[in-house]
Amino acid sequence: METKITVNGRSHSTDAAADTPLLYVLRNDLELRGPKFGCGLSQCGACAVLVDGRETRSCVTPVAAVVGKKVTTLEGLPALYAEEKQLGTAPALHPLQQAWIDEQVPQCGYCQNGMIIMAADLLSQNPQPSDTEIKQAMDPHLCRCATHNAIVRAIKRAASTEG
Amino acid sequence: MGTPEPTPNEHHRFTRSGLLKRGGALIVVIGIPTAVWRIAGTGSDAPTTWPTALDPSTLDSWLAIHADGTVTAFTGKTDLGQGNRTALSQIVAEELDVPFDRVQMVMGDTATCVDQGPTVGSLTINLAGPQLRQAAADGRHALLTMAATKLEVPARNLTVEDGVVSDGSRRISYGELIDGRLLGVAIPVKGKARGFGLALGGPRPKSVRKYKIVGQSVPRVDIPPKVTGEHFYIQDVRVPGMLHGRVIRPPGLGSQLISHGKPSRGARVVRLENFLGVVAEREWDAIKAAEELEVKWSDWAGLPTMDEVYSYIRKTPSLEDTVVAHTGNAAKALAGASRRVEASYTTAVQTHGSIGPSCAVADVKDGSATVWSGTQGPNVVRAALADALDIPVEKVHVITYEASGCYGRNGSDPATIDAALMSQLTGHPVRVQWMRHDEHGWDPKGPATVHQLRGGLDAKGEIVGWDHEAWIPAFFETTVIGSVLAGRTVRMPSLHLWEDPILYDIPASRQLAHYQGDIGSAENDGVGLISAWIRSPVQLQLTFASESFFDELAAAAGADPVEWRLQSLTDPRMTAVLKAAAEAAKWQTRPSPGPNAHGASGVARGRGVATSLRGGTYNAAVAQVEVDRKSGKIRVNHMVMAQDNGMTINPRALKLGIEANVVQTVSRALIEEVTFDRSNVTSLDWEGYPIIRFTDAPTVDVISIDRPNMRATGSGEPSCNPIAPAIGNAVFDAVGIRLRSLPMTPDRVTAALEDTQ
User: Fold this and answer.
1) Where do runs of H (alpha helix) occur along B152-211?
2) Nearest Cα to B27, choosing from B154, B152, B136, B182?
């Protein structure tokens, strides 16, 4: 039984069982490395992707649930940005990815996929968030290295370069 | 012919081709692999025997200078997320006089990298840095010698800039000099041939005054691929023909496997005695099969309960009782003191809590093992693999990839053994990733500790005697759980020793360690709540007790906590660090508790200070806290952290690493506690073991005192040590209660507040 999904603007077929969480299809069938396995319980956010633009935990989302929807992973953020801004070609980096580099955010970096995805969702809803709004929006995502302050700085930087 | 094997962990930076022959093994360095997802190493032409240890006296073991002028440096160290790859590359580029971006670093491959000891104890910059610096100085000397011959001028008449040698009129690049050959130069080895004590000889490295790359905030090379998803973590490694494995662990530490049922579709069971797992071609099939397999285990209940764990530790016979340090006669001084203070402190069991559960891939066949691991100690796990698989160490090749931040020995090593056992049992390459409950349940734990502190003041209020006695249930080795279950018990060597030097001028003092086996190990053939310290082995616990207790003495003497420390500190570097922290925090001189500490209700504010010295790195912290008397919740609003680690290699990376370490340790000080029952750990996910979130993370002000003429010491661990006591001392300042147990949870605050009423 084939399932057709759209990831980063491309259509893919997978023969994975319909109850397979999207995460394993992305990582093992599509060979994407952005989304990470963290808990499988929707507790940490390392697996986050955008589904129709909203942050979604791919570790608990069955692949069948995203049929007909647009899935964007960390790898697809530059193209999504180009689409939103109606740019002819995608930049190498989404402004959030650039801000993450400018602020030298990651330590180990394992959680940062989910952090950047969540920040993309936040800025699409609230382009100029306050510090408090950023912290509240990011609160469901865990970072063991504790780069929280650097993440807040990077989101503010991205918001200011866009604003 | 198999796919060429990329040298490890350099996928994102190689842009050229080259061929290197080193150590008897042919290594093909290729361009950015187009299909790196499938990493080879399993082809029919892959070697099956590797050197026992790479020879450090051959310059080619350390450096490869390529015809295009780029440089590959090889290090047995790994990058755990704090920027070692960048910092070590800076050191090599500086010493060779080549631009930073021409240096690549191959890390933690046992076949191609000299064993410089495991990446632990904040010892990479401190010990491996000088080793690589000297190797690079030797490399520069070798290249200058080649140039002198070629240009027929004395080497002293030559200069180097950006990898180009010049005699004033003629220029020749390193790439032209080496022309695709090996360096072929022997270098003197002083001291040991491997590990921390390895020391190289040769020409004196460059003067610090000439540094252009070391000391600069070079952007970390690992960060761009980490924000695009291109970075290869150990969790991303796949090899052809690989199966996905999952482990099934017993409910109790000492439970025996009685029977198991049939696995669900697509999976098969792997078993060796009590070692149980499943493998499947599809990862989800393996996960479901592990979840659904019916397994009967025997009961086991040999752990103390959480309520009795501290008295259990106090009563447990020691493996060794050691006077770590002593000055004068502490017992006599305490007996003669005009005022005596005594208190006991405890710290809870904590977990490493890596966001990515541990993972490894192993291909064991024909008596030989190629293993991809997220380990901190490739050579340590190599020896453990040889033991667990019962094959010679020369038949094991460990290739290290960066893992999720571990902050100590998390599940990486045991997961590596799990993958190897499953591969040996199935005859296929197997990738094992632990599930969340495996990582929370079975990563070796930072053990609970107990402390007894005694202090004596004379009539003038000066400290005349000090005694710190600690019960420490962790000693020299970490048991590998999979090997125990499989009946092939392997214990990996580990550093567990007391580090918390007395910084003050106290005429009589003693530090006494009672080292014990793991909690509960006496009831289960030496396998208890398996221990391996989290960031800052033993010192986070020791300094919490000693610096909190020092504050108790300051309060007993009615002294300001900063002033009192300054009067008594003996090392000017520590004095400078403490003054820097106090100044940045706008410290107001007065004794604790503060004037509003004894209010009846509401939120009280306080500030506290603490210092520490670890591995030559000096720290002082000031915590600014709020305590909600009603809920008992402590909120750390702001932390100042001052640090002197001698020379700083990369100031920005250093400061960001310290900032993160501070927030992580605030989490450990306030909320982190592993729960367990008499059988095993019961905090098996992030609800059971919460860590700090954005809304509770304090702001951090990092003050770095750079001393470019002093040896660079470590930074990963040291700054965590003064944080918990600074917070506890701030709570005392705010509400007048002394918190003597970590973590400082609302329950403990509320109980302490009730005790004072």
Assistant:
1) 174-178
2) B182
Closest CA to B461 of B336, B594, B553, B380: B553
The answer to whether ipTM exceeds 0.95 is yes
Hey, which bits of B193-293 come out as E strands?
198-200, 243-248, 257-260, 267-272, 275-280
* CATH code for position B452: 3.30.365.10
Give B493's pLDDT tier (boundaries 50, 70, 90). confident
Query: Which ranges constitute the DSSP H helices of B511-569?
Result: 539-556, 561-568
A113 vs B contacts (CB less than 8 Å):
229
Residue B683 corresponds to which tokens in the numbers above?
């905090």
Judged against a pLDDT cut of 50, whether residue B24 lies above it is answered with no
Determine the residue of chain B that is closest to A36 in CA distance: B356
Q: Could you report the per-residue pLDDT of B663-691, keeping only the tens digit for each?
A: 999 999 999 999 999 999 999 999 999 99
Q: Taking 50 as the threshold, does the pLDDT of residue B26 lie above it? A: no
3-state helix, strand, coil in chain B (%, to 5): 30, 25, 45
All structural domains of chain A, each given as residue ranges with its CATH number in brackets, are 3-75 (3.10.20.30), 76-162 (1.10.150.120)
B586-604 pLDDT, tens digit each: 999 999 999 888 877 799 9
Residue numbers in A near B686 (CB within 8 A): 39, 41, 43-44, 142
Per-residue HEC secondary structure of B564-580 comes to HHHHHECCHHHHHHHHH
Going by C-alpha positions, the residue among B688, B728, B435, B745 that lies closest to residue B607 is: B728
Of B442, B467, B500, which marks where a domain is finished?
A: B442
Residue B225 lies in a domain: no
Segment (H or E) for B290: helix B283-292
CA distance B235 to chain A (A): 8
**Phi, psi of B571, deg, nearest 5:** -115, 120
Domain, as residue range, for B326: 309-348+446-480+490-523
- For the residues B638-650, what does the mean pLDDT come to? 98
Strands (E), A8-132: 10-14, 48-51, 54-57, 70-72
Q: How high is the pLDDT of residue B556?
A: 95
Task: Average the pLDDT over each of A12-21, B43-52, B87-96 and give the range with the smallest value.
Answer: B43-52
Q: Name the DSSP letter for residue B478.
A: E
A15 touching chain B per CB within 8 A: no
- Which of B228, B402, B443 to substitute to test the interface with A, most A CBs within 10 Å? B228
Answer yes or no: do B434 and B366 share one domain: yes
Confidence of residue B566 (pLDDT cuts 50, 70, 90): very high
Q: How many domains does chain B have?
A: 4
Same domain, B464 and B596: no
For B:211-230, CB contacts with A below 8 A are 219-220, 222-224, 226-230
Pairing of β B18-22 and β B25-29: antiparallel
Task: Please classify residue B402 by burial: count the beta carbons closer than 10 Å to its beta carbon, then call 0-12 exposed, 13-18 middle and 19+ buried.
Answer: buried
The pLDDT-based confidence of B13 (bands split at 50, 70, 90) is very low
Collapsing DSSP states into helix, strand and coil, what is residue B233? strand
For helices A112-125 and A131-138, the axis angle rounded to 10 degrees is 130
**pTM for the whole structure:** 0.95
CB atoms A110 and B686 under 8 Å: no
Residue B295 is encoded by which pair of tokens? 């397994």
B296 and B247 fall within a common domain: yes
A149 touches B: beta carbon within 8 Å: yes
pLDDT band at B15 (very low <50, low <70, confident <90, very high): very low
User: Each residue of B102-142: pLDDT tens digit?
Assistant: 999 999 999 999 999 999 989 999 999 999 999 999 999 99
Q: What is the DSSP letter of B113?
A: S
Between the two ends of chain B, the Cα-to-Cα distance in Å is 78
